[in-house]
Amino acid sequence: MSKKFKNKEFHFGSGVLFRWVFFILIIYFSINYLSGSKSSLNTSFNPNFNILGVNSQPVIIKATEIFTGYKNQAINFANAQFIDLKKQIVTKVYEQIIKSIDNPKK
Question: Total structural domains in the chain?
């Protein structure tokens, strides 16, 4: 890492906010696309298909349950992160407003 960036202090600004919003939108649309919701994908996939009895195997049923659990955890994690990000933004804006009231520039 260059010396130029080692001692640089973090400042929350519009560029950082834009990058976070862009990142969250990418994650949100990726999760929606991968979750196979009817609103984003118009496929008629039936998870109860049975090809040579493969779907009735206990290993397949367990793997499907595990995959569904991980998918739900990923969606819940993304939602929790989005809520946390909203809280941080509101807190930062609140702190900036308080600072501007306490130290008015003349």
Answer: 1
